[in-house]
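step 4 of 6: structure.
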Amino acid sequence: MCRHNSHDPVQCIIPPYMSDKLLDAASNARLPAVLNNELRSSRFRNDRSFFGNLNDAQRSVLLKPAKAPTKPVLKMQVYDMEKDTVLSNGKLVWNNGKALKTMDTDTKNVVAAGTATWDLYYQIFGRNSIDNLGLALKHYIHYDNKYDNAFWDGRRMVYGDGDGKIFGSFTADPDIIGHELTHGVTQYESNLVYHNQSGALNESLSDVFGIMIKQRLLNQDVKKSKWLIGENVLKGAKYSLRSMKAPGTAYVNHPDLGTDPQPATFDKYMVLPDTDRGDWGGVHINSGITNFAFYVTAFNIGGFSWEKAGMIWYAAMTDKENFQPTSNFEDFKNLTIQKAELLFGSGSLEANAVTDGWAEAKV
Amino acid sequence: MKIKLQRVGGILPMTKEAAIEVDWTDEEIKKLLDCICLKEKKDSKIRDATAHFLEVKGKATPIDLKKIPLEYKAIFEGLEADMKFVKS
Ligand SMILES: [Zn+2]
């Protein structure tokens, strides 16, 4: 029973939604207006009395504030492997903005580049992290002893310290960190098969977004950028892992590595075995061709690469209907031209730049 | 006999290798390979990964370095430390 004059909210057991129903019923029954009005007034007095007497705790339960649309926020963790190779043994050293121990150079590197990567994808392309659903970025640093590599394991980024002679730490270049994170983006989008041409496209997209992450972090336009991937990771001022501007020149006559084998044009495409040893058909080799197409496109458009060329590449790489796991160079060429025409108009400077980029790469 | 440890792949896909003479019997080698050979298929989502092979009498077997038995650890750690790049 509801004691209408009660000031005790617990005892006033007719909640507002029920008095709403009573009011509806009264209206439907065509009660005399005077009775209907009395019921309404009684309901108003009781609601006011009920809500007016709630304490803060009761009010917070019953009157939940309307939820504002949540803005995506970066979630990121850094784990120190301390030379171990079992990822579950990594120790959490940085968690969502909070350092749990003094930050070393590698922690600072992955935090800065991880943030720059998340920012590029969100601020420029409107993407919420790797999966577009806010996946936390997890970096594992100091993996193994003198490990000279970095990789994406399907869920996380893993970085070695390098041997200290030929290679420095694999966290030393933001483009490498952006490269690994972009493997995640590709996995959640086209999921390009990691063999032959589709594999080379997979690798190239990681380099393309990796270089944009570095250029934006360093505020470099297409002319200022050297278009080098891993210029700090590979020691020596004249060496880097890859050159997008001039594939095949990242390292020449290196005393330990020899000469960069990347082709810049499709007529030099290297047919390699689709095995571990053959780099799965040269996925890191033939990526030079599509890297070069992006470089020429971005350079001819001018300004900052991510503003137009990057927008075109992103639109193509996230077109799940037309960009398939087995798409090849020709498919991606056609898709980027189509996206450029859609975004900037047929015959626009941007659409022509994309066509010219692919023509320069002889695709 | 000579055994050769090789590492292939990576974000810069290069081959590294180191060899050493051992006096292991054929049976011992077979037992070791049975223990360390990579049986399960690698996760297809891994990118820029490296892989190891052990070459014995010209035959290369994919191996998991984490499975090296304790008594062979020192030899394999030495081989890993000695690995040199094969120039491209
Ligand atoms: Zn890669």
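step 5 of 6: annotate
 - The first strand of chain A starts at residue 76 and ends at 80.
 - Residues A 179, 183, 203, 206; B 11, 47-48 surround zinc ion (CB under 6 Å).
step 6 of 6: archive
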